[in-house]
Each structure stands twice: as structure tokens, then as C-alpha cells.
Amino acid sequence: MTVPDGPDANTFPDTTTVVDDHVTIRDYYPYGSAPGSGSGNDLGYFEFKHLGETNFFNSPVNYVIIRLSDVILMYAEASNELNGPNDDGLEKLNMTRNRAGLPSLTVADVPSKEALRDAIDRERRLELAFEGERWFDLLRYARQEAADGSQHAVTALDLIEQKRGTRNANFLLFPIPLEEMNSNPQIGEQNPGF
Length: 194
Prior knowledge:
By secondary structure, this protein is mainly alpha-helical.
């Protein structure tokens, strides 16, 4: 995304953009420039994927906890992990792709479990953008350090470095709750870094 500079810096038009064969509606406005947005006392751009345009942070639109596309892609992922590329998993993946106006994939397009896993991961990354799912996908797919430059350019450690200024792998784990450690002597010790 190119952020406007100079005299047009206070406007950023709604545009339709094709990203990785996906058509996406990009609703970025500078803070305060969207219709009915309020005072605009913050700097930067705001993503309106789930918010109404009547008020910036007081939207009548409910916050999405889980979406049908997320459940369908979880099903495709589980089917692939159990049975490899098969009609059942592909059908679920293609439900999401077809709803977005994309062509269906076939077993010839994703001939191995790894290829279908990458296709599902890519679909999740694009379908669930800005919904707080990517971090958990990166951890689940063990994309903490390894990234291929084309499809998975960002790793979990990249995000940690971006937020904390360090590539500390301890932040890949959650702490074990103290109550669990106290009630289960088999646990032994806390995760590193906590």
C-alpha cells in the first residue's frame, strides 16, 4: 500500500486492489477523514474491515469472534493433516476460494500434504487478514524462523522483533499458569523466559 504524501496526505480513496489473486476492498482512511469519524486526533491509517462508518471506535457492528470461513478452513486443514490432499479437504478450501470469486484448486494443483497445507495457510492469511489469527497460524505451522520469501515472508520471530525489539524465542510460548504448576507435579518447570 502506498501512503499518500504531500498535498494529498489528508485523503486516501477507497480502492479495490488485487492481492495474490484475491480481490480485496481496501478501506483505509487517515484518522479523522472517514465520514462521521469524529475528531481525528490520532495519526496513521485505520482499517475498516469490520467497523461501520458512523463512528470510529463506537461502531454498531459486533466484533467478530469466529467466522464461518475460519471454521471451514480449519476443517480443510484437519482433513489434510489426517488424510493428505483429498476431495473433502479441497472441497472446503474451494468453498472459501469460490465465495471470493477465485477458481477451485484440484489435487493436481496441490499434489502433496505440504502443498495443500501451504495453500490453506495462504488462504487463511488472506481471508482472515486483520482478524488476529495470523500469529496463531504462524505458531501452529511452525513458521517461527523459516520463511520462504514469496509465500511466507513474515515469521513469528519477525513479529516479536517488530513489537519488542528482540528476536527472543521465549516469546513464542505462553507461560504455564501457576495454578496448573501447583496442582500438577509432573509439569516440573515453567516455560523459558517466565
